[in-house]
Amino acid sequence: CEKGFDELNTNPNNPLTISPETLLTGAETATAFRLFDVPVNMDGGLLIVQHWAKSQYTTEDQYRFRATSYQSIWDGFYTGTAALPGGLKDFNELLRIGKETNNPNLQAVAMIMRSYYFSVLTDVFGNIPYTDALKLSNEVNIITPKYDAQEVVYTGLLAELKQATTLLKTKSSLPVSGDVMYGGDMTKWEKFSNSLRLRLAMRVSDVKPAVARTEVADVLNGSNLLMTSNADNAQIVFLGAQPNTNPIFENRLTRDDHRVSQSITSVLSRRNDPRLPVYANPALCAGLTGDSTGLYRGVKNGLSNPVAARGPLCSMSKVGDFFTKPSAPGVLMTYSEVQFFIAEARARTFVSGNAEQAYQDGIKASLAQYGIVDATAVKTYLDQALVAYDKTSLESQKESIGTQKWIALYGQGVEAWSEFRRLDYPKLSIAAVPTGAAGGKFPTRFRYPANEQSINTANYTDAVARQGADLIRTRLWWDVKN
Amino acid sequence: QDRTISGRVTDRSNGQGLPGVTVLVKGTTIGASTNADGTYTLSTPASATTLSFTSIGYASVDRPIGTASTIDIGLSADTKQLGEVVVTALGREEQKKSLGYSVQDVKGADLTQARETNVVNSLTGKVAGVQISNSSGATGGSSRILIRGAKSIQGNNQPLFVVDGQPIDNSSFSNSSSAGGVDYGNAASDINPDDIESITVLKGANAAALYGTRGVNGVVVITTKNGRKSRGIGISVNSTTSFETPLIIPKFQDQYGQGYGSFEYVDGAGGGDGDNVDESWGPKLDGRLIPQYNSPVVNGVRQPTPWVSPGKDNVRNFFETGRTLTNNVALSGGNDKAGIRVSFTNLDQKGILPNTFLKRNTVNVNGGVDITNKFKLSTNVNYSNTRGRRPSQGYDELNVMQQLYTWFGRQVKLSDLKDIYEQGGREGSRNYNWIQVYSSNPYYILNEATNDDERDRLIGNLTLNYALTDWLNITARTTNDVYNQLNQRRVGAETRDNAIQDDYTEERIYVLERNTEFLATVNRNLTEDFNIDGLIGVNRRDNRQNRSQVAAPELAVPGLFSLGNAGSPLVTGNNFGSSNDNNTGILNPVQKSRINSVYGSARLGYKNFAFLGVTARNDWTSTLPANNRAFFYPSVDASLVLTEALGITESVLSFAKVRGGYAQVGNDTDPYRLQAIYPARTPFGNGAQQTYFNTLFTPDLKPERTNSVEAGVEVRFLQDRIGLDLTAYQSTTTDQILNVPVSASTGYLFKVLNAGEVSNKGVEAILTIAPLPTSSPFQWNITTNFAANRNKVIKFDDEGQIKNLILGQSGFGVNVEARIGEKYGVLFAEDFLRAPDGQIIYEDGLPVADPTRKILGSYTPDWVGGITNRFGFKGVDLSFTIDTRQGGQLQSETNMWGNYTGALESTLNGREEGIVGDGVMLAADGITYVKNDVNVPAQDWNGAYYYNVRSSSVYDASFVKLREVRLGYQLPKSIVDKTFLKGIGISAVGRNLWLISSKAPGIDPETSFNSGNVQGLESTQIPSVRSYGFNINLTL
User: Fold this and answer.
1) All residues at 6 or more sequence positions from A339 whose CB lies less than 8 Å from its CB, including other chains
2) What average pLDDT does this structure show over A428-436?
3) Structure letter (DSSP) for residue B813
4) Residues A208-221: what's their mean pLDDT?
5) pLDDT of residue A93
6) Which pLDDT does position B154 carry in this prediction?
């Protein structure tokens, strides 16, 4: 009675095997897409840090974020969603495959990417499942993972990155295929690993200065490769054809309610910043006050719908074509960031060296990233009083670095938000109508996805009890009040 | 001298004509039999004094002739002799009194006069314990039918449909949800009511044990008409015309127009003040002068014109009067040896939304022949072609209701938009539209963004029957149900503001179910007192399903909707509608499965008043792992007719029976749920992309089990004028195979589990009353049914880690969940933050949401019931049905967004003076609460109250409806005889006429997007329809 049943029930529709290269390609592109997609970036970080603003449906710009966005960030980063499969889970499996095949390079790549996405998750939510995460299988029944304190997550990630570098230093010749970010160039991965470790170490500099000092000094002790030019940037360049196009381009196919924030257009124009025409497009018509067309005119953040509606829409600058084109890059980390971190580490005396030099190198790297390399133009820019490095105090140095970093991180909503929370510079004004749950402050985290209350109830309750109310105004562990 | 007597024989219980009744002149062999509509004509000798009327299953009646030339008579079901015969499992006819479980019948004529295009809806309010969830008013929408509550947490909870012994497919390939998509109907709606003789609902697992895995949710057994009873050639024509209008639409405000406080139209794209705002918080519609979309433009300047309301029926007038024509012609012929019936039906329905329709042609051939006395052949072949053009549903810009009910400038005159569309057509519409950023002209959407589908379906069976002896029969049967469906979604470029090109998607679906069956049936008197009725059978069931979807997101040549006209690479996969549709069906475009079965049943009767039945079945399924593929399940039931056992004859109590039974049914799962898969995505350049699948499969699944018991009592009094049928039941389904949503932090979004447990217990009651005596020329029958089901989720996983299971969610975060210890179908979302005394807490004058979510209700009702009154007098037949559903909740996005956007009448409060919300706020001490006294603009209050907090749009879903009214008249024989016809019946019918009571404002609480388990959500529903019309039935 069972003849042919095995064959009948063998899935003819989907691959029953997977290779490390197809897994790596899928995971890299999916997660880069997700990092720049609407929930965490366009309607998240970019509005909070006032790179962008909303010209319509201003709800998120007033810190009233959607429950579905929180869910989409959580589901997407950890495992991938039905609409966009591929996530952290895939890097976790690559790590396992790397161990099984004794490929230190593959293990290292997987660990670096794993650390990257865990750091995004914890910087967005705070306490998250880390030690229990991604363990569920038919053998291990961890179906309701516990949440780890953010400190535990950071300690773990710093160690993982150190180990990744150690693996890469063995200079194994085993290849890593399917790598669309660095094309299997292990030197670049080593640079990214150390640069990322520098980022995470600096992130805890306010809450655990001693840890930060030790880690930073270790990374910068001269024996570790770091990004040395924009060619080392960790980024995935999307393709010109759907469906592998940039998420901002995808969004523009059906929506048109994001504009450049007035905060950044005014900061850039006060400095005659050559990046302004890259970051924003000129307005297409005059504003209500009758001023001229063609200006780079940003929109105030957090307008009420009625005020935003007075527009006119055409008077508000759209986001620069560089960012909305189908093949715009999805950036994970840049050389300019590394220089800004070095500048700050020197300013904090974690290491010795010329902070101002690193600061200027960071600005130059950012300008170069957008094709601005003319020596005279660069010098003119750097020499301005508003741009010059203010060595007066640590606080003033933080302000110089924070402001330029905020400019350099334009478009990278998550990282810009994290650094804005940590450095508290530049001094931005709160959104015009902060009626959301932020309590008149900048949002300091996102709420946990609502479904955690249904399907991981006990651990969710425990995490909230330890971290503080599940609100967007609850501070993360590393975000020390100043 | 001979004279002619004519008349009509009806069933007293429902007033319907009874065919095949033998009318004999008593004491002679002179006689006739009645036609399909129950009429007869008989030539009698002058000596005749009495006519006798006999029919199987009915009490015989002798009637003196006297001087009458017309004798009409109503027959009552005979409970003492042969008893009422019902069709049970495997298409067998059994005495109702012998059954140890509950069954209930609906006659075919009830389905064709007051008709529904979806036959499932016809059962509403008429069968105890059966709950029908009608879809919206979209043409040809699907209906969900649930018998005795939901047993499976996630699986199919709908009964099996069986036509003439043949299981047929009732899949729904709809992708509609609260977030959008199209409802293509459920496949059982292909069954043509005109071809149905009767429907028997087998309610519990006991009744259905012989159907195996799919009988666990009950069985709807449909018997089609055949030619056997027609005696000669008969032609009947049945024609129904009905008109449909919206039953209920929201109450809108007509005092304020588009914008926020102020408004000026420049280009509909944000060029003016509030010009791209699709909300109605604008200036008062008091005739002030404002430049508007329809204002004249002089020298490039739009001239201000009076700002006025287009009238309170602006939205109502958008709907057209729907029209449904159904015409059926049936030809039947037969004699004692053979019979055939050929029927053709044309259904032509025009929806209430412009440019929506449903058309269906059905040809049914049902025939049988006795090749010899022992060898019989019968076959039933049904072909149908269904074509639909259906509206998009849910919260999606392609559903025009989203605009009309919520995002809309209330001053916009919809007839203007019609004119604009008709002038501009495909190309020009957008440039004149009132708001073009996020939605298009609704007339453009309905005409240029269409969802067409076409299904060709062939259902056929061939049965050979050979009588080896007078007590042993051998039957061989093969049944095939196969259909092909093509869905075509065309989206004109102007539908979405930023779309550059037309967009086209097509979906192809192929479904096959094939059963091959051999049966040996035994019916033998063992002794004078003992009778045995039994069978042994084997069956092979094969299921195939192919489903593919291809989209051309940008067409090269405008207006040519074809994959060949793709201007960019074709995209495959689930891109057909709603984006949050987690239906994984499309993940496996090709599905095959098989079940082999051996089964048997036996019913032992003692003196025809005591019965004991047993059934047993063993299945082997391809979808479970090798060690669990074979599973066995039994049932046992008994019944005792007390009145006969105790010899009660002449008494107030005319019939009494007790019955009871136990059954177990096993169930398998979908194919391919044992093995991990690694789905591929569109390659990144040349690089193939794969991923770990988001579901963790379990290789060692075992079958689900449902154990159920039921007991019932049936009593009738006063010569059956009062009847009561009571049933109590309990069922527990264990080892449920679940696709459990888990925290993404596990690395998966779903895990397949094999442990879930749900229990259902309930009672059903059917009360029938004939208030008038049998001798009365008036007939009045009352049928009442009532059912209450208590449903409880007991566990999910053995370890008890999982307490809640998310079944699905709305686009705005309302979860529909199964939660341990709760009723099935909990609505779980945000409530207001509340002070200790329960009052809503306000901050800055606005209500605050509680970050901890709560249970806001459940979509499962407490009880359902219906009452039908039927009056008959001299060929006039009047009946009406009222039904109700009490308890249960729903969440309404129409109300949520309609209040947010200022479209609804309820938003008029505080427009000028602002709103001080009813609640409390933190006092200056930061600890205690004082009454909220902060005045905020009405727009802000409505926005916060309805958008931030979901509980504000959760309503009690109870309702009472006047479901059906029918007034029929069968023309007297004396008139009919003057025509060339044999019978003429006319009736006026109405369905879904009046929502007598409801607590959900502006919507029909009986609403759904599909026939799945995620119910209790409403979003900008296409209004359900009130239908009224007339039916003509002619017999030649």
Assistant:
1) A358, A359, A361, A362, A365
2) 75
3) S
4) 97
5) 95
6) 72
Q: Which of residues 299-318 of A touch B (CB under 8 A)?
A: 304-306, 309-314
What single letter denotes the amino acid at residue B346? N
Instruction: Write out pLDDT tens, residues B338-355.
Output: 889 999 999 999 999 999
Which pLDDT score, from 0 to 100, does residue B760 have? Answer: 87
Interchain pair B747, A253: CB under 8 A: no
Interface contact B572, partner A, CB < 8 A: no
pLDDT, residue B169, reads 85
Instruction: Note the pLDDT tens digit of each residue in B727-759.
Output: 999 989 899 888 888 999 999 999 988 888 988
Domain boundaries, chain B: 3-78, 112-245+323-397+440-681+699-825+860-888+959-1035
Taking CA–CA distances from A469, the nearest residue in chain B reads: B851
Out of B64-68, B250-254, B301-305, the most confident range is: B250-254
Window B:120-159, CB contacts with A under 8 Å: none
Q: Is A2 on the interface with B (CB under 8 A)?
A: yes
State the CATH architecture for B3-78.
Sandwich (2.60)
Residues of chain B neighbouring A113 (CB-CB closer than 8 A): none
Q: Are B506 and B542 in contact (CB under 8 A)?
A: no
- Name the token pair of B1019: 């979003």
Residue of B790, B1008, B659 whose CA lies nearest to B129: B790
The answer regarding whether domain B112-245+323-397+440-681+699-825+860-888+959-1035 maps to CATH 2.40.170.20 reads yes
CA angle B905, B322, B257 (to 5 degrees): 25
Residues within 8 A of B (CB atoms), A 347-386 only: none
* DSSP string across A193-259: HHHHHHHHHHHTTTT-HHHHHHHHHHHTSSSS----SGGG-EEEE--SSTTSS-HHHHHHHH---EE
Say whether the ipTM exceeds 0.90. Answer: yes
Q: Does A173 touch chain B (CB under 8 A)?
A: no
DSSP string, A260-298: EBHHHHHHHHHTT-TTHHHHBPPPSS--TT-PPTT----
Q: Which positions in chain B touch A8 (Cβ < 8 Å)?
A: 592-594, 622, 671
Where residue B578 falls among pLDDT bands split at 50, 70, 90? very low
Residue B502, pLDDT > 50, answer yes
The length of chain A is 482
Contacts of A312 in chain B (CB under 8 A): 266, 270-272, 275
What one-letter code names the amino acid at B356? T
d(CA B486, CA B465): 38
Nearest to B744 by CA among A242, A221, A49, A135: A135
Phi/psi region, residue B564 (left: phi>0; alpha: psi -120 to 50; beta: rest), is: alpha
Q: Tokens 């720049």 sit at which residue?
A: A36
Q: Helix, strand, coil shares of chain A as percentages rounded to 5?
A: 50, 5, 45
| C-beta of residue B722 within 8 angstroms of C-beta of residue A110 | no
A22 to B279: CB separation less than 8 angstroms, yes or no: no
- This prediction has a pTM of 0.84
Query: B911-915, long-range: CB within 8 Å, 24+ apart, which pairs?
Result: B911/B255, B911/B256, B911/B284, B911/B938, B914/B938, B914/B941, B915/B845, B915/B941
E strand map for B203-335: 219-224, 234-246, 259-260, 280-281, 289-290, 297-298, 301-302, 305-306, 322-334
Q: Calculate the CA dihedral of residues B208, B211, B214, B219 and round it to 10 degrees.
A: -50
Alpha-carbon torsion, ordered A393, A394, A395, A400, to 10 deg: 90
How confident is the model at residue B614, as a pLDDT?
A: 93
- How high is the pLDDT of residue B315? 95
Q: What percent of chain B has pLDDT over 90?
A: 44
- Interface-testing mutation among B743, B897, B911, B949, with chain A (most A C-beta atoms within 10 A): B743
Pairing of strands B375-390, B357-370: antiparallel
Strand partners, B463: B378, B477
pLDDT at residue B583 in the model: 38
